[in-house]
Amino acid sequence: MVQLSERPGIKKLSTLSDKFTYAISMVYDAENRFLESQQMMVQCCQNKQLRSTLENHIRETEQQVRNLEQVFELLGEEPQRITCDAAVGLISDCQKSMLLTADHQELIEPGIAGGQLIIEHLEIAFYHCLIKGAEKMGKSQIVQLLQQNLEQQEQTAKKLEPLMSQLLAEIKSVDGKTAARSK
């Protein structure tokens, strides 16, 4: 169990507003971490469609970070990053996968697509929860900003799903040829 003493500067939350600001701070941290990780992943892509999808999403993520900064402004708060352990873990898992498949480019790209798809689904869940909180607090401008981010996450997930399937199908055909040759 995490102890508050492990999180210096974090106070106990006593209102919906406190909880919302805390959650925005975690998502702000996550988006910044995911931006850095996408910039690394795109360098490993040889597949033009995956590379293009990631490059486009990098631009969207930069806008999402700016949208979250506007949310902080609307809340009368300075942007603050509170470590999002889920983001740290997902990025770590993606990096391990890339290291373990580094000698086989045909395995790296489905791993990147799959890892990014998992990240998108986490972000979709984050934004759904944040939107509900903002609606409860009557913050319509914040809802609009968060809705923009959510829609971009959903669109990216829709692009990644068939792309990941395509990349996996290409591996299957490579594996099948290798197995046939070894018989």
TrEMBL record:
What top-level branch of life does the organism fall under?
A: Bacteria
Q: What is this protein called?
A: DUF892 family protein
- Which SUPFAM superfamilies does the record cross-reference, listed alphabetically? Ferritin-like
- Which UniProt key words apply to this protein? Coiled coil
Parts forming coiled coils: 51-78
Q: Supply the InterPro entries for this chain.
A: DUF892_YciF-like, Ferritin-like, Ferritin-like_SF, YciF
